[in-house]
Write a structure and sequence with these properties.
The chain is 46% helix and 16% strand. The chain is built from twelve helices and eleven strands. The longest helix is centred in the last third of the chain and has 22 residues. Helix 2 packs across helix 3. It has two domains: 142 residues, no CATH class; 168 residues, no CATH class. The chain is of the alpha/beta class. It has a six-stranded mixed beta sheet. Strands 1-7-6 form a three-stranded antiparallel beta sheet, with no helix packed on it.
Length: 320
């Protein structure tokens, strides 16, 4: 039986004691397991592993030569036969498949099994925990230690020089709309966090990104003008019906952009691609005319269903 020994530091935090150390990623991959709620309904408490996420980690390690400095958190099991030696400065354990239960970092460990490159991985090991204590720690880690919100990550992505051309365009358009005092979304956008009553960067990107290909040959200023003019026309219709507040609802906002390609095509056909506010407004008229308020005030959770309703109203008007 293969044994491994590593230098450790013993840390005490409140009532908890654990060891900190580094372990080669290939060793870690051979000794860890997860307790999935799907695979083990009686005893499991973790979510299902996502292979695509693990593959992305493996790619990051192998191709990008990436760094993953945050610790994987483990609970030593009886099969590990973990021993403390060297006056408390070393631990040793047996290399068996279920030596350690992963409490945090399961996708990193899974990614290491797929990666060809070996790294030294920071690790925290708890020893002698009961099942109840393992579940409590898992719960604490996943509820009290909040991840950085996606809105903030998108807001700062360009600072890392890691932005795609599409992401750059979305950021520029969003920021322009956010700072333009006479624009349709001034005061309604939340750049770096999710805020009630405002459109987050995540919602904005999800709504607009699928339609950028239509304007792939235009510069970012022109794309921003077209999107701004479209939203101005939408807001005019909403304001006329006292429905202004519905625009910041994520379902409504995304549905409005499901409608966008057809409206833009109609404006292009009728006005030789002259995407002025008044041209958008005219094409949108049958969509909002006699529209029941509850369609937008109580839109449900499916932007696709709402978008289909709005598209249907537009298409019916074009038959006459």
């Amino acid at each position: 039986m293969t044994k491994h020994a590593y230098a450790v530091s013993l840390v005490t935090q409140g009532k908890w004691r654990f060891y900190t150390l580094t372990i080669p990623s290939d060793v870690l991959a051979k000794c860890c397991f997860v307790s999935s709620r799907i695979e083990d309904p009686a005893e499991g408490f973790q979510r299902r592993l996502d292979k695509k996420r693990a593959e992305a980690i493996a790619y990051y390690v192998d191709k990008d030569l990436g760094t993953i400095p945050n610790s994987v958190i483990l609970s030593a099991q009886k099969d590990a036969k973990l021993e403390v030696t060297g006056r408390g400065k070393t631990i040793q354990f047996e290399e068996v498949p279920k030596a350690f239960l992963v409490l945090d970092g399961q996708h990193r460990v899974y990614g290491y099994t797929l990666a060809k490159t070996s790294l030294r991985v920071p690790v925290v090991i708890y020893n002698g925990l009961t099942k109840a204590q393992e579940v409590r720690l898992f719960t604490d880690i996943n509820t009290k230690q909040r991840p950085v919100p996606n809105e903030l990550l998108l807001d700062i992505q360009h600072m890392a020089g890691d932005e795609s051309q599409e992401d750059n365009l979305l950021r520029v358009v969003f920021d322009t709309l956010d700072t333009n005092r006479s624009g349709p979304l001034f005061g309604l956008l939340a750049p770096s966090e999710r805020t009630k009553g405002k459109i987050s960067r995540v919602t904005f990107n999800a709504a607009v990104k699928p339609h950028l290909q239509r304007f792939s040959e235009l510069d970012e200023d022109r794309v921003g003008d077209i999107i701004g003019n479209y939203l101005s026309a939408v807001r005019q219709h909403l304001s006329a019906r006292d429905l202004d507040a519905t625009l910041v609802n994520p379902t409504v906002f995304r549905a409005i952009f499901d409608l966008f390609p057809r409206v833009a095509q109609r404006v292009s056909d009728l006005n030789s691609s002259n995407y002025l506010v008044e041209n958008f407004h005219a094409v949108l008229e049958p969509v909002f005319a006699r529209l029941q308020a509850k369609v937008l005030t109580h839109p449900g959770t499916s932007f696709k269903q709402l978008g289909d309703k709005l598209v249907s109203r537009l298409e019916k008007s074009q038959k006459f």
